[in-house]
């Protein structure tokens, strides 16, 4: 029932969007609004109007609590408040504030009223605070409240803006970042693990719609890995509402596996990664993506050294490799995973599975790798792999 | 005086080092200990012994508080505790705990005793907690303490390990990461701003000693920028004690500036960045560094788009560009800056200075840039710039 009480969600997106040049800001705001509309539609949250004003967005909906919660995961939103809208007449402000206190205030607690005012009005912000405070005390004696301006346990915020006023108690933190779609796509190499998903999310947060690619390797990884990747992809797609919900799957050619089996494992690691990068590069070309994203943290494993990265990246002639987790410790990656909501999708045993292969790549030089790749006819293998491309709706 | 009370610092470095393969772990621990010794020496903190045991390090010093604080910024350390060492005899554990409570406990507060025990002893962990708790109450009646095991305000931790025991109250969080020097060097392009320094620190945290390079450009940036960069470099070098404290300075050739002045600003931005990358690449070759690090966040400015990065990175033929802040919002970069201690060194007006130039690079293609570079004879300009290389001790 509390949901029906509010009539507005205030969406704030100041932060980084606010300091952009005028033409960029306009573009970003337009994209943000489109993404917000898509989320409301996806969750069947009806709204009557969506007003952009004062560098904010006011969404008129009777499901304001639910809308605020869902919109908190739209990239570019810095914070949200479910609110009552009324006119800037002091009587209206007071009565709507009493209504708000009646719904949200807990018995016997200390409270404060804060007011922010823009425009010309026949009263000061101080007047608003005083009037609202007094009327709450007299109108709701059963709540047994006490005014405390320095250490309140609950607060009513009143924002008076020109001829309108808004009253609310809660400010929900948004995800921040830049609106999805304000940057080109990236090819995200998704694995059945947390880091590849977090890395993908980090570039999404900065505006890049992801092109999720999974290299299926049923012999080594097994069926459960595929199920896990699907679950991860689904979770990630909850953050990209309004964009295609797809996972690209490439069969990790049997022939490749047989061939790399002939080489020492440290060599085959690099051969594999370079092969994946080559295929990813072709996908980027096909889909007009602008870079390849991996979940590497520096020094996490023996295959994640600067030396190994250099050999890996050399296989990509036209695209940079982006490693948003480069400087992260494992614990820092975990923190982000929680924030994204990946805890449930990825099982704990993952760690052991991926730690099995211990390799040492420091002694391998690029020339050795290139010689083997020539023998393998890697270019042909890349084309063969691309023929196995499947697109799964997730 | 409290400093003289303790005799030991317990240094924990479990985390990521602990899960490495045996030979890597040994290497990492050796490096960590060398770095720790360098910090103790740098701060003139005398110690009598340094014992590696139980995946920890026990430093015998009478300046334990100071040592713990200084060592908390050594990469690879997960936490530290200034402690009393004693034997595992219960009487000794009790008397050392009373001494500890006398120094650290505040009057009238609730306390608890926790015990962790490894090895064979004629008592249980429970016995330790009970005995220590009772004796503290009876020996320090003037403190007016109260035992509260569920919600203590202060806690004594006792660790009994074989024939030794340690008692402490505080656990200081370490910086985490991997010991500096366990990865190769990186060339860090330092500017008079926070992000370039944070990016550098992120790669340091993962083990890379930084090769700080500043491109001096007195016409555009002015003298104060150089002073700021020096201050930033000094602050960064506080995290690399034991490694060279140097800042490399390249004069940003007058001829280059004149030439780029002839091109539209969006073009000259890319020309500049590609030029810096080329010089950085030559420095990496000369100094055996393995990559170039920048403070770019995706989409932060018009010059920080995927398209721009692609054109920039193309100038580097042999090294990847690392952008550890790629997925960060400005606020996230600020958080790290505080943690690193960069707030004081970088003035607020920095933001405005760097925001002056607003450019749009989406329409520029690599071919246009390459054509201009051919005309400019960029290779020769790179060699000329390298001749201006100066190394400053910071």
Short note summarizing the structure:
The structure is a homodimer of 394-residue chains. Helices cover 43% and strands 20% of the residues of chain A. Chain A is an alpha/beta fold and 394 residues long.
Task: Describe, in plain words, how this protein is organized in 3D.
2 copies of one chain form a homodimer. The first copy, chain A, has 394 residues and is of the alpha/beta class. Chain A has 2 domains: 172 residues, VC0802-like (2-Layer Sandwich); 209 residues, HUPs (Rossmann fold), CATH 3.40.50.620. In chain A, 43% of the residues lie in helices and 20% in strands. Chain A contains 15 helices and 15 strands. In chain A, strands 1, 2, 3, 4, 5, 6, 7, 8 and 9 form a 9-stranded mixed beta sheet that branches. In chain A, strands 14-13-10-11-12-15 form a 6-stranded mixed beta sheet, sandwiched between helices. In chain A, helix 5 crosses helix 6, helix 7 crosses helix 12 and helix 10 packs across helix 15. The longest helix of chain A has 23 residues. The first copy, chain A, starts with a helix and ends with a strand.
Tags for this model:
15 helices; six-stranded mixed sheet; VC0802-like; homodimer; nine-stranded mixed sheet; 15 strands; 394 residues
Q: How much β-strand is present in the residues of chain A?
A: 15-25%
Written as H for each helix and E for each strand, in order along the chain, the element string of chain A is HEHHEEHEHEHEEEEEHEHEHHEHEHHHHE
Annotation, overall tally of beta strands of chain A = 15
Total count of helical runs of at least 4 residues of chain A: 15
Which descriptor suits the 3D outline of chain A?
elongated
Instruction: Estimate the mean pLDDT confidence of chain A.
Output: 90
Which runs of chain A of at least 5 residues are low in confidence (pLDDT < 50)?
349-358
Q: Looking at this structure, what is the CATH superfamily of the largest domain in chain A?
A: HUPs
Structural class call of chain A reads: alpha/beta
């Amino acid at each position: 029932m509390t949901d029906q009480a509010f009539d507005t969600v205030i969406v704030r997106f100041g932060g980084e969007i606010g300091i952009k040049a005028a033409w960029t800001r306009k573009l970003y705001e337009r994209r943000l609004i489109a993404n917000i509309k898509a989320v409301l539609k996806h969750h069947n949250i009806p709204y009557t109007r969506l007003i952009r004003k004062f560098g904010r967005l006011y969404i008129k909906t009777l499901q304001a609590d639910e809308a605020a919660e869902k919109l908190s995961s739209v990239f570019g939103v810095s914070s949200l408040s479910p609110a009552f809208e009324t006119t800037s007449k002091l009587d209206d402000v007071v009565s709507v504030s009493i209504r708000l206190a009646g719904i949200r205030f807990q018995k016997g607690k200390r409270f404060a009223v804060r007011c922010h005012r823009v425009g010309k009005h026949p009263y000061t912000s101080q007047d608003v605070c005083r009037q609202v405070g007094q009327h709450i005390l007299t109108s709701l004696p059963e709540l047994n409240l006490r005014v405390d301006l320095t250490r309140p346990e609950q607060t009513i915020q009143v924002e008076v803006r020109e001829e309108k006023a808004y009253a609310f108690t809660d400010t929900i933190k948004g995800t921040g970042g830049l609106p999805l779609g304000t940057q080109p796509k990236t090819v995200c190499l998704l694995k059945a693990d947390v880091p590849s998903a977090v890395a993908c999310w980090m570039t999404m947060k900065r505006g890049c719609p992801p092109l999720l690619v999974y290299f299926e390797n049923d012999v080594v990884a097994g069926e459960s890995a595929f199920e896990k990747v699907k679950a991860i992809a689904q979770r990630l797609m909850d953050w990209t509402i309004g964009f295609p919900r797809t996972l690209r799957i490439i069969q990790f050619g049997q022939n490749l596996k047989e061939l790399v089996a002939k080489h020492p494992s440290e060599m085959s690691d690099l051969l594999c990664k370079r092969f994946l990068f080559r295929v990813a590069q072709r996908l980027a070309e096909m889909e007009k993506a602008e870079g390849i994203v991996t979940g590497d943290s520096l020094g996490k494993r023996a295959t994640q050294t600067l030396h190994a990265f250099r050999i890996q990246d050399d296989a990509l002639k036209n695209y940079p490799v982006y490693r948003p987790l480069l400087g992260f410790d494992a614990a820092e990656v975990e923190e982000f995973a929680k924030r994204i909501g990946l805890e449930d999708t990825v099982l704990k045993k993952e760690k052991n599975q991926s730690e099995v292969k211990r390799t040492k790549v420091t002694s391998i030089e690029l020339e050795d790798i290139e010689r083997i790749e020539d023998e393998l006819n890697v270019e042909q293998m890349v084309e063969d792999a691309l023929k196995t491309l499947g697109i799964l709706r997730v």
